[in-house]
Amino acid sequence: MTRMRITKRKTIALIVPVALLALAALVAAPTFADEGRSFRATLTGYEEVPSVSTAASGEFRAQLSADGMTLSYELTYANIQNAMFAHIHFGQMSVNGGVSAFLCGGGDKPACPPGGGTVTGTIDAADVIGPTGQGISPGEFEELVAAMRAGFTYANVHTVMAGAPAGPGNLPGGEIRGHIK
Predict the structure, then answer these.
(1) Rounded CA gap, 72 and 147, in Å?
(2) Cα gap 99→136, rounded to integer Å
């Protein structure tokens, strides 16, 4: 009888760690399957170059399709005036880089909501416009995705008010920006 209890304890002692390991694998599986396909950025004036003091803020989220040919995105921003353009730029943190793709206000993308809102869309090879001078030619979607995965892109929203001095609501270089991770 004691031998049966010892065998039962050994069996339980073996089953519990195996079950925990299996559970950990199930929890981690979606993370590994999604690696390199989801992107996000929090946009603030402090990340602009040079930094901007503004009440405006935003969020960018994107998901690469399973076949790697399109990027679906959502850009939301608020407390802003005169939003005209939003882009993905190719450039490292704290450095300005060239435009790679429009999110709103250009190309075939919707107009940017001037005072804030949400825009959604899809980027494909036809939407990639460069920057050629930095090694990404028009149409090189894979190069843009590689730069995003490497952490060398950012999203920003530009504001423009004709005839007004530079300041919140008139920052053609960008009012809010976020490093895409």
Answers:
(1) 16
(2) 10
Report the C-alpha gap between 89 and 77 in whole angstroms.
17
Residues 69-112 have pLDDT tens digits of 999 999 999 999 999 999 999 999 999 999 999 999 999 999 99
Answer left, alpha or beta for residue 36, where phi above 0 means left and psi between -120 and 50 means alpha. left
Q: Give the separation between CA 104 and CA 113, rounded to whole angstroms.
A: 9
- How many degrees, rounded to 5, is the angle at CA 51 between CA 47 and CA 54? 90
User: Contact, 75 vs 55, CB < 8 A?
Assistant: no
Rounded CA Rg of the chain: 23
Sheet holding 171-179, edge to edge: 98-104, 83-90, 153-159, 171-179, 38-44, 57-64, 71-78, 117-123
Residue 82, Ramachandran bin (φ over 0: left; ψ between -120 and 50: alpha; else beta) = left
User: Helix, strand, coil % (nearest 5) of the chain?
Assistant: 30, 35, 35
Contact status, residue 60 vs residue 75, Cβ threshold 8 Å: yes
Token pair 């399957």: residue: 33
